[in-house]
Structure to design on (522 residues):
């Protein structure tokens, strides 16, 4: 690869200074816990949509999508553009329930709908996964990516540096600092990757036929045979939607910026905007990887595809911009998971244990917790290198543990007979069965693709939830009515608006766009 120029390094350094400056500027305006955890509930749809996009795109996503498109095809992009489906479900059904409940954390909603047991179980699971898997994993993956560009970097130095920068502005600026920096980072990421795509396409004379001609047969197909190891059609149908539902509807670090919306209109508009933005990676991260097949043949390690096309195709200055976008992706994921984990610790555990705690103490608990979790993630991240095989297994196992969570939310808001006993036993039994299936699969005794396992576990968890709920006392109908779906919620916040401002109009446009992509890449 070409040497990174001093100009590019200067652009990256300027980016770090800029992001820290934004964080400290916002920190001066952060006065209480609502500012720290929910940005004072002041976010408009543009900030929400851009922040959702940026928080979701990690460095591993960019590297992984480009590499997968080079080696196995564009099918992995379904996790990106199909995100519109769960985002629509969240905007239609869950946003009004969440905002009417005035919750700060998603586990709080489980306490209101069911009881404290489900809240504690889900909160502990989310905090653990946020720090041990998502934050530390993001730091580790980001450090590995940066090492491909700067081989002399020391792994633990990079993870610590990234954690400190993200942790400091997150601790003192709270969610508002996270959302504002995310919005800037999303714009940088889109501009940088779009420029890269344009340059690569230009090298192919802007000929789509040349792109297709260089790729193996079926490389641009989204619907694969049932025996496909990458993504069988059963996984596309049964696994991806439920994994997406868990991520976009029940994941604290995603939903937290929606909870901070100025009103329900902006919350819904922001989620649909994120659905449109999630289509973009197909064109600026996935297809460039496919273009590289003819431009840079023979790349054996798929993780080197993106670094190769960046350093070989881009001029001086543009490399720095794209790398700044790549670092943006790392920072966006890390700051979001740190902020959400500290929110969960303080709101779900510190406040209930200290009913009379002051606003000032809550704020400092939040900041202190963020810094502590930052240190834990930074210290753990380098050790992932010793457990790389286990790390892949943990990611797969976590995807198997998603179904019981998805069921108690998705079934729970429609099935009013569902109760606290049904919820907690669904979480316990679903988690145990998920671990069993994982172990059987690792010992070659279970042969379903892990995305297909998601659909199976959703069915089993639904049966457990309904059976246990019907075998135990019914919940109070008056209380349940506040936290379950009703038709009038569909119009919430849309009264008096022209059709082109109605989220349902935007929703139809998004569905048509996703349907066209599926048709074009069938």
């Amino acid at each position: 690869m070409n040497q990174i120029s001093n100009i590019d390094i200067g652009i990256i350094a300027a980016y770090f200074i800029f992001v820290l400056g934004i964080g400290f500027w916002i920190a001066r305006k952060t006065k209480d816990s609502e500012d720290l955890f929910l940005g004072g509930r002041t976010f408009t749809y543009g900030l929400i949509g851009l922040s959702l996009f940026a928080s979701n795109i990690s460095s591993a996503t960019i590297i992984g999508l480009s590499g997968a498109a080079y080696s196995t095809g564009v099918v992995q992009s379904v996790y990106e553009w199909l995100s519109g489906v769960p985002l629509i479900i969240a905007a239609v059904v869950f946003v009004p329930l969440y905002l009417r409940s005035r919750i700060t954390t998603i586990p709080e909603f489980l306490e209101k709908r069911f009881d404290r047991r489900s809240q504690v179980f889900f909160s502990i699971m989310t905090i653990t996964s946020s720090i041990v898997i998502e934050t530390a994993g993001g730091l580790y993956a980001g450090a590995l990516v940066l090492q491909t560009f700067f081989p002399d970097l020391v792994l633990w130095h990079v993870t610590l540096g990234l954690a400190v920068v993200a942790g400091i502005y997150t601790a003192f600026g709270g969610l508002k600092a996270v959302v504002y920096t995310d919005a800037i980072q999303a714009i940088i990421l889109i501009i940088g990757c779009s420029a890269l795509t344009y340059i690569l396409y230009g090298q192919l004379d802007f000929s789509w036929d040349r792109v297709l001609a260089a790729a193996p047969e079926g490389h641009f197909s989204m619907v694969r045979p049932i025996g496909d190891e990458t993504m069988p059609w059963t996984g596309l149908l049964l696994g991806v939607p439920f994994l997406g539902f868990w991520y976009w509807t029940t994941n604290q670090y995603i939903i937290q910026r929606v909870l901070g919306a100025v009103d329900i209109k902006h919350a819904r508009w922001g989620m649909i905007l994120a659905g449109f933005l999630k289509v973009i990676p197909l064109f600026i991260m996935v297809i460039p990887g496919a273009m590289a097949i003819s431009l840079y043949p023979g790349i054996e390690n798929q993780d080197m595809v993106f670094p190769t096309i960046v350093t070989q195709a881009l001029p001086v200055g543009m490399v720095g911009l794209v790398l700044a976008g790549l670092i943006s992706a790392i920072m966006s994921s890390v700051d979001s998971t740190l902020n959400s984990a500290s929110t969960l610790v303080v709101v779900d555990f510190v406040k209930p244990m200290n009913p009379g705690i002051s606003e000032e103490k809550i704020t400092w608990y939040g900041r202190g917790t963020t810094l502590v979790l930052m240190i834990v993630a930074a210290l753990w991240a380098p050790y992932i290198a010793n457990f790389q095989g286990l790390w892949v297994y943990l990611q797969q196992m976590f995807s198997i543990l998603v179904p019981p969570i998805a069921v108690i939310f998705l079934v729970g808001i429609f099935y009013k007979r569902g109760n606290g006993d049904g919820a907690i036993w669904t979480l316990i039994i679903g988690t145990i069965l998920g671990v069993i299936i994982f172990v059987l699969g690792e010992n070659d005794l279970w042969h379903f693709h892990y995305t297909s396992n998601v659909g199976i576990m959703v069915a089993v968890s639904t049966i457990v939830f309904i059976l246990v709920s019907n075998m135990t006392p019914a919940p109070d109908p008056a209380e349940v009515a506040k936290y379950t779906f009703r038709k009038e919620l569909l119009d919430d916040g849309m009264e008096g608006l022209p059709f082109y401002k109605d989220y349902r109009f935007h929703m139809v446009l998004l569905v048509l766009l996703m349907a066209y992509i599926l048709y074009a890449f069938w």
In short: The chain has a mean pLDDT of 86.
